Amino acid sequence: MEYDLREQTAPDARERVDELLTEIHDAMPGPWSFDEFRTWLSRRRGVPVEMRPRPDDQHVDTPCGWTLVCEDRDIVYYPLDTPETRARFITYHEFAHLLFNHEDGETDRRTLVEQLAPDVNPDLVKKVFGRTNYDRPEEQEAELLALHLLRNDIEHLGIGVRSTNPRVATRVGRALRLLRGC
């Protein structure tokens, strides 16, 4: 069975992603670098976006990326020991949560912060996002926007998506065709 993101994503999510992409392209017409995008995101949100790599320990219960929305900054955690394209996609997914100003849905935020980011004061954290439950509409929006943002890197910045695994290469090809409207 072939996976088609257009069939899996709610129409209102696609509409919200399209509106946000228009805003992004109006603010930054033409190819932009990851750092330029992060700077734009910081200005748009009014706080710095701090990047923190972490070991990619592959624990089942640990999200592969997460974001802490604090009073004075946003902190995005991304896997260190993973291919650049995967790390970038995870980061863009987290950026999407920030751009959409999603609610975190976490009931025990303090415990989660203490487990994932023990160096951050939990009293200063307003929201926590982690890539875990992909059935939520917020996750669908974040995934779709992340695909579009990653396309900029692939098509304009030469960040390659190469794999010797035929299944991975097939999935990437399908995603790129979807983004091009093929």
Automatic annotation (TrEMBL):
Tell me the keywords, alphabetical order. Answer: Plasmid
Q: Which domain of life is it from?
A: Bacteria
Protein's recorded name: ImmA/IrrE family metallo-endopeptidase
Q: Organism source for this protein?
A: Rhodococcus opacus (Nocardia opaca)
